[in-house]
Structure formats: structure tokens, C-alpha cells
Amino acid sequence: MPILLWELAGADPDRRFSPYCWRIRMSLRHKGLDFVTRPWRFTEKDRIAFTGQGKVPVIEDGEKRVHDSWAIAEYLDEAYPDLPSIFGGAAAKSIARFVTDWAESVVQSGMAPMLMADIWAIADAKDQAYFRASREKFWGGRKLEEVQADRDERLPTFRKSLDPLRRMLRHQPFIAGASPAWPDFAVFGPFQWARCVSPYKLLADDDPVHAWRARMLDRFEGEAARAVGFAA
Length: 232
Ligand SMILES: N[C@@H](CCC(=O)N[C@@H](CS)C(=O)NCC(=O)O)C(=O)O
Hints:
Strands 2-1-3-4 form a four-stranded mixed beta sheet, with helices on one face. α1 links the parallel β1 and β2 (35-40). Helices cover 56% and strands 9% of the residues. The longest helix has 33 residues, at 90-122. The protein folds into two domains: 3-79, Glutaredoxin (3-Layer(aba) Sandwich); 90-226, Glutathione S-transferase Yfyf (Class Pi), Chain A, domain 2, CATH 1.20.1050.10. The N and C termini lie far apart (36 Å). With 232 residues, it is α+β, with helices and mostly antiparallel strands. α1 (19-31) packs parallel to α2 and α8 crosses α9. It is built from nine helices and four strands, in the order βαβββαααααααα. Bound molecules: glutathione. Glutathione (GSH) binds next to α1 and α2.
């Protein structure tokens, strides 16, 4: 029986825009596991209540149910040790933790204010009020449109924050080395999030990070490139 992956979707059920779900989609492909996906909306908490929390990704593998992207990756490596490793061993996994935290606290957090109103626009109608209320509360009561309005001014600082990745890419094509693994999936997640929700151009065409993202988009027969999104 294939693994079932619950993924965040927009008004278009094929627009799968969660950065955390993309990590898992790439990880499942990396391991070569057979899986099917199920679209899920922010407000459908009851449908994943069996996990005791309200966020995706969630996977169901037979009787086993796992939530949280890092925990899912750990589970997959433990349950399928003979398939290609997502983390690549204990030392690599420790470093992957740092890269994951950088992806969330610098890359994803840096992008977030530039995408807020665009996410609202592609969200399912039944999610829009929830998304607006929860995110405007997070942004100190500012309207999503206001949060996003100064993105041109934010962009240079965001691009500069990618310097560690840009510098590393002088030496190797992927964060994990010659071929991608979890660190690449973790950092690619936010970039694919942005691409799925917004036409806003976060990366200049001549940026080595743009070239890395193109390599990630091409991976697995261009699965991420074919995803519903924008050609940003
Ligand atoms: N730490 C979790 C975070 C998962 C997460 O925040 N998922 C978002 C989708 S991108 C979600 O389900 N949000 C539900 C909500 O905001 O109510 C992971 O790594 O999987």
C-alpha cells in the first residue's frame, strides 16, 4: 500500500504550497517510495485530528501515522534503511539540523512578509478568513496587504541573507554535496512555497542560488517545476 501524504492546498486543490510538505515530497522521491497525496486546507483540523495537532505534513504508512517534517524524515530513514538515506548518517544529520533551522529562521522568515497577501489570494475561500485573522495577529495587527507592501525595500536584505548558501555553491552543486539530500530539501521548501503562491521575483536570474533552485526544480523528472505555481 502506498504511503499517504497530507498536503496543504489552495483554492486549486493541485496548488500544494506548504514549504514543510515540499520537504517530504522530495524526501519520498529521494527514497524512491511509492506515495499518494491528499489535499488539506488550514481549517480542516478535524481531518487530521488523529495526529493530536493541526498542521501538515502528516503521513500515514499502514498503521503508522507521523506528523512534523523532521519527524517524518527520521521515520522514513528508520523504517526504510535500505533505501537512499535522507539525512546521510549521524554526522550529516546533526549538520542538517542547523541547516533546517537556518532555512526556517532566515530564509522562510525573510520571505514570509513578502508573500502574505499573495498567500491569502490563492488560499481556499473557506481558509481566507482564518488565514487573515491568524497571520494579521502574528504581524501585530497589520493588514496582510500592508505587511507585503514594502517588499521591494525588503528584497535586498533578503537576498543578502542568502550569502552563506551563495558562497557554498562556489564549491559544490548542492548543500549536501554532489547530489541533494535533506539540507537541500529543507532550504528548497521555502523557495517552492514562494513559487507556488506568488509571481514575485525573489531571486535575480544571475544569482547562483537561482541556478541551485533550477537544479532542484529539475530533480525527480521536474516534479517541482511542474507544480501549480508561478514562473517566478
Ligand atoms: N514544524 C512543522 C510545521 C508544519 C506547519 O507549520 N505546517 C503549516 C503548513 S505550511 C500548517 O499546517 N499550518 C496550519 C495552520 O497554520 O493552522 C513541520 O516541520 O512539519
